[in-house]
Prior knowledge:
Number of strands: 0
Number of domains: 1
Shape: globular
Distance between the termini: 12 Å
Structural class: mainly alpha
Radius of gyration: 16 Å
CATH architecture: Orthogonal Bundle
Oligomer: single chain
Helix content: 55-70%
Mean pLDDT: 93
CATH class: Mainly Alpha
CATH topology: Hypothetical protein af1432
Amino acid sequence: MxxxxxxxxVNAITAKITEEDLNFINKYLDVNEIExxxxxxxxxxxxxxNVAKDIIREIDEEKFNKSNKDFNYKTxxxxxxxxxxxxxxxxxxxxxxxxxxxxxxxxxGKLKNxxxxxxxxxxxNHGEEGYKLLKHRNYSDKFxxxxxxxxxxxxxxxxxxxxxxxxxxN
Length: 170
């Protein structure tokens, strides 16, 4: 776990958005979504791009679309790109996140009781914040649930499980 966190920290502080990334974003997000996406700091945008690209590398589009009539592949990639949009509410820089991860570990999750602090609130509730940010737009309930629930431990929705798997990997 420690090596994963060090890698995550290094990736965050060295994150850059490439021309290829911009083309990728333009392929899956519309103008309004791009504007919203760009409110995230570079390291969170790059993380979301990495999550989406890992899904593309590992999940076949044709197979996915055949077995999922109500949530197509493009929607899955869009959800991957927007899954952390609630972090635009209050940004956590890599140092903040590292401190919160350590505090969460040392307090055995009791840090959750201090969500009156904005950074702690965003750390634990950015899914809910993303849901609130997107619920007035034209998204399906399933799409919104993926955004809202991607950090829950008791996930029954297959699409949310996919986002969670690749989010945890990145």
